[in-house]
Amino acid sequence: MVSTTDHHGPIDHPFFVNANIISALPYEGANDPDLKYLVVFSFASVSVNNASAYPRGVEFHGGLNGSGNFIRLPILPDKLKMGVVYGTRAFAREDLTKAEAELAKREKGGEIAAGRGDAVRQVLEECFGCPEVLAAPDFASQITEINFRLWPKFFQEGNVRPTDIPDLVYLEIETLVTELLLRFHLTRPDSVLYRLLFDPAFRALALEHFDGIPGAFSRQQDWGSFLFWAVDEKLHRVRLHLDGDALVAPGRGYRFALTPEAMSEALRAKRIFPGMLLCYLVVSLYYGFKCLGGFCQVHDLTLTKEAWR
After folding, report:
1. pLDDT tens digits, residue range 19-65?
2. Which pLDDT value is given to residue 160?
3. H or E segment at 162?
């Protein structure tokens, strides 16, 4: 059983804090070594400027007007805000220094109550600015490191770290699915996932049965992408259509041959990544994880399961 509710970003929004508190309740007092970690398969296909998770920086209340003044403090620069978290570069100490300067500016402007800025600054240094985070190879890996450090702070009493709550491990689902495909399926013709990608008869069935399912694609209404998304030079998502033995983006010049070699190369280079449909097919319906989802997943995953069967 694993949570697939969250967007891959710092865990500071009530959507995700509360969902993980609920998921962690059965762990309390369990004294079971297998329940040491609360694992979340989060989605990194959201934009850096995502409306809820806000991966780009930190969300907090300034502490004024009954805490009604909601503040978003960016760490990554504005030019990256519309790119997907998957593939975004790691932030550096220079980015963090700019964020702290912006925090000081907002304090001086009266947006933040006395003492609140110091608390945020401490979180930035301890959870975002520690050597392990700054040394991570990409932004998605940094978020995993950040949330591991940020999660216990919701339960601290003074300086004592609680020992009866599980550690939170955020792993983005797109990388997990990519690794599974590369290691176990793209070179194994007996795998049903291999046949889904490379057998024309299976692809035709996928085109028929997954059409119109949220998280997949709609040919009639012209939304979504067939199993994978491409990313352009700005890390914006690019829709892909099935065209014979290739995935193409009409008018954009993207074409990926549906062969094990071409798909493996594109996945390793992060020129494409698995869409939501493929992530659910692999994690839930192939490997059998029971996925704890958000508002729409109960509906969407049920339709996906029926279509898969």
Report:
1. 899 888 888 777 787 788 999 999 999 999 998 889 999 999 999 88
2. 58
3. none
d(CA 146, CA 126): 9
Contact 230, 256 (CB under 8 A): yes
Q: pLDDT confidence of 67, banded at 50, 70, 90?
A: confident
**With helix as H, strand as E and coil as C, how does 76-143 read?**
CCHHHCCCECCCCCCCCHHHHHHHHHHHHHHHHCCCCCCCHHHHHHHHHHHHHCCHHHHCCCCHHHHH
pTM: 0.92
3-state secondary structure of 50: coil
Among candidates 17, 70, 4, 57, which has minimal Cα distance to 279? 4
Residue 156 · residue 127 · CB < 8 Å: no
